Amino acid sequence: MDLSYQDYLSKKRPKKFRHYQKKRLQKHLEKIVPKSPFYSRFVNESGKIVYDQFPIINKDVMMNEFDTLNTKRISLKQAKQVALKAEENRDFAPKIGTISVGLSSGTTGNQGVFLVSDQETIQWSAAMMKKAIDRRKFRGETIVIAFFMRANNNLYETINQGKIRLHFFDLMNPIDENLARLDQLKPNVIVAQPSMLRLIAAFYGDHSLEYKLKEVFSIAEVLEEMDRVYIETSLSCRLKEIYQATEGFLGISCHHGTLHLNEDIVFIEKEYLSETSNRFIPIITDLYRTTQPLIRYRHTDILIERKTPCPCGSSFIALEKIEGREDDCFIFYVENEVQIVFPDFIRYAIARSSDKILQFQCIQQTKERIDLKLELSSASSEQTIIPIVIDQLNKVFPSSLQTRININVSIGNLTNEYGKKMRRVISYVKRSD
User: What InterPro entries does the database record attribute to this sequence (predicted)?
Assistant: First the structure.
């Protein structure tokens, strides 16, 4: 009911929504800060809780301060033991009392650990069902969801209510086994990573798709445009995105296909990467999370803000796309000054080189070495495409370094390690280097 009211305000009375959101933020802080030893230390001497006085934290701080940050006095050691045992046994039901424990995929280094209470799982389930499921499409039909994930969690199981049935597909199981089970299940909703959706699309390129998909959602990985086109064409269904992370349910596509941040669930500050850029890093405060509070948490995703209003009418922040992790930026040094090339420029340079490029992965191995792997259609000419790709990539790199940067191009089938996130643009060069 609260989310429905905020949705109404965002569309009809956006100024009132912003006022409501700030009141909601203050109310949440007053409720949760005294229960967290970590956050309570930042309350000023008068006892007043002021949002701007809280530090901006990151994943390292969240993990280092895990024991004092959460409000249930659960230690990181205890939480990891439960989560790792669940991963090993593939049984994700055990809890610490009423608290479910989960692990992030660890694509940015060490794995994050998250805690969710029974109350929070119910709230998450309600938010997900309201935002993701357009019941008008199903007309009383049972909603059968095929959900592909590396690890299940009690969080996801709460969606099973009434005429909604979620079926967990373990990415640790063999691909053929999962695809056969999917074909037998005949779901009307599929939720999976783009790399898994490509496998599903390829499967139904060889086998007839004998059931109607009402919704297909991309999760966990950056959705590339070439992947979107391939998946939508093969599955005959518009692809939407769910922006879910260890840090919470951050965003979802509206019915017009625009990805909006869930400002009814999270309060967002924007750290713009330059004064003229529409790229920003989100700083997140979760307005509902109480077991493991997040206040002014700096994410590492680079988001590209949409410049024009969305036709859906929502005033929630609209995105052109999620560009990728901050760590995915290519780093170069020109006269001891850092020059950054954003992942989107690299993707665009490769994609516009030829429509014969089916997939790619571009890796900055060192300051002067780039490895690019291309998967081409059978009718492609390697000798024609490779020089064009190299030329297009050189145009986005610093001009003074172009003669020194070695771009190694290889051709072949691009396969992702099953069960792990696909990353199209990767940099192993960091600013500290």
Answer: ANL_N_sf (IPR042099), CapK_Type1_Caps_Biosynth (IPR053158), CHP02304_F390_synth-rel (IPR012685)
CB of 108 within 8 A of CB of 124? no
Q: What is the DSSP letter of 214?
A: S
Residue with tokens 């000023």: 44
Neighbours of 415 (CB within 10 A): 11
pLDDT at 417: 65
- Predicted pLDDT of residue 107: 47
The span from the CA of 336 to the CA of 313, in Å, is 46
Would you tell me how many other CB atoms lie within 10 Å of the CB of residue 231? Answer: 23
CA torsion through residues 330, 331, 335, 337, sign: positive
Please give the Cα distance from 169 to 184 (Å, whole number): 13
Other Cβ atoms within 10 Å of 303 Cβ, number? 25
Burial class (CB in 10 A: 0-12, 13-18, 19+), 395: exposed
**367, 222, 239, 371: which is closest to 300 by C-alpha?**
222
Provide the residue ranges of all domains of the chain, joining segments of one domain with +: 2-117, 120-325, 329-427
**CATH superfamily, domain at 120-325:** ANL, N-terminal domain (3.40.50.12780)
**Average pLDDT, integer, range 203-213:** 90
Strands in 181-325 per DSSP E? 189-192, 215-218, 239-245, 248-253, 259-261, 266-272, 279-286, 297-298, 301-305, 318-325
SS3 category, 140: coil
Return the H-helix or E-strand segment holding 161.
none
Query: Which among 69, 32, 77, 92 is positioned nearest to 289, based on CA atoms?
Result: 32
Question: CA 285 to CA 264: how far, in whole Å?
Answer: 11
Instruction: Give Dmax (Cα) for the chain.
Output: 72
User: What pLDDT does residue 105 have?
Assistant: 61
Higher per-residue confidence, 240 vs 139: 240
Q: What is the pLDDT of residues 339-383, one digit of tens each?
A: 888 888 888 899 888 888 888 999 999 988 999 999 888 766 788
CA distance 274 to 161: 46
Integer Cα distance of 390 and 229 in angstroms: 24
CA neighbours closer than 13 Å in the CB half-sphere of residue 140: 0
